[in-house]
Specification:
CATH class of the largest domain: Alpha Beta
CATH superfamily of the largest domain: Vaccinia Virus protein VP39
CATH topology of the largest domain: Rossmann fold
Oligomer: single chain
GO molecular function, one term: methyltransferase activity
Largest sheet: 8 strands, mixed
Protein name: RsmB/NOP family class I SAM-dependent RNA methyltransferase
Distance between the termini: 70 Å
Binding site for S-adenosyl-L-methionine: 283-289, 308, 334, 351
Domain SAM-dependent MTase RsmB/NOP-type: 181-466
Keywords: Methyltransferase, RNA-binding, S-adenosyl-L-methionine, Transferase
Number of helices: 21
Helix content: 40-55%
Bound molecules: S-adenosylmethionine
Shape: globular
Structural class: alpha/beta
Radius of gyration: 24 Å
Length: 467
Amino acid sequence: MNGQRNARNRAPQSRADKVRRVAYLVVRQVNAEDGYANLALNKALRDHRLSGRDAAFCTELVHGTLRWQGTYDAILARCVSRPLADLDPELLDLLRLGAHQLLRMRVDSYAAVNEMVTLTRTEVGQSRSGLVNAVLRKVSQRTFDQWIDSVAPAVAEDVIGHLEIARAHPRWVIEAFADALGVEPGDSLAEVAELLAADNEPARVTLIARPGLADLDELVEAGATRGRWSPYAAVLQGGGDPGRIGAVATGRAGVQDEGSQLVALALAAAPVEGEDKNWLDLCAGPGGKAALLAALVSERDGLLTAVEPLPHRADLVRSNLRAVHGEHEVIVGDGTEPTWPEASFDRVLADVPCSGLGALRRRPEARWRRTPEDVAELTPLQEQLLDSAIRSVRPGGLVAYVTCSPHLHETRGVVEAVLERRGDASLVDARPYLPDVPELGDGPDIQLWPHRHNTDAMYLALIRRDR
Ligand SMILES: C[S@@+](CC[C@H](N)C(=O)[O-])C[C@H]1O[C@@H](n2cnc3c(N)ncnc32)[C@H](O)[C@@H]1O
């Protein structure tokens, strides 16, 4: 134990050593404490003052290792003589980091093995470095594709089992995606495979020039390129810190996936008869869609009410709304227990808490952490929130039910159950309100996809309250 503590205090040898050590500490934190990779990584980059190429290398190490964890575990299981569950978790994370460098990064094998052996020595002790050396040397003897051929089931025997390893997604997630894409038993899974590949690419940083507050040209001048369908979207090619752009720093612009912009724009574009000044965002935190809706309703001389139960997320909503004209209200409260009279609003957004299976590009660890039970636990709340949204809208008004998950239990399952139970609201075809966006499906609802639209897999159902 003392040896370990002393070893930990030893200063890392070189720059590359230092970056690998930071990546190891982040992966450890994520796996040991159920941490969020993005939060832990950003903090570590700041604390250790890593920037530029070092930050990029560290990010790829952390994100890649976590994203491909299931695949690396299948490969490592072939290279370690005992069950992986019997290894110290620290050692397993070091091996995963080594496997990622050897199989999916252009790191020289000799350097990758040596650096990981040195890191093992300083982080867990000399006695384990021999095992890391031996295992990583075995890993380095094959390419990624050769390992997949060796450890994944053959496509002809078990195509989902093959994708599970070759594309690093749990079986239940692949099955849920296949269902949502309408794949029938016996159909090809080629499109599912495309989707899984898209999930393994980091998402681009997309910005929004909030309507009436910032001009898209401002973002373009700062190096972004125009989005494809949202008139307010711009993509920061090559990433970079959006906070350096003045319009983002002041809240006139923000960071928001184009899919997230599109579903809010569809809600705003669909016609309602009569007054159109009171809009509600029932699940508002952190406030990306709230800021867009508030900017749009301000242009109609109306106001947005935003509801969020978690105080720190309600603060984020306030911050996102800070540049928008008008006295928009943020209520810290539970959307299932309205403090406002029934039928108070002309338009309501219910962007409900969900499994997030549509945003796996952004959260590298999430796919291994989520379970089918999470989905089952969320659907009653999703139904209550949709029910509350319909109660809150006036007859003739519109509700947008939105998830960043394509899982059918969270999307159509919830909508069908609530509409059937209530009997006073009906689906509106949402597709005409995103006229330029291709491949929206058979309607009346809309499902966006990373592999088709290069957005998160956002789902939208537009619902009109009939009476
Ligand atoms: C998918 S996020 C919303 C994202 C947001 N619309 C945006 O674009 O930034 C769902 C939000 O619902 C909140 N939430 C959870 N339970 C809720 C409840 N009972 N009523 C209202 N909001 C709830 C969560 O805290 C979370 O902030």
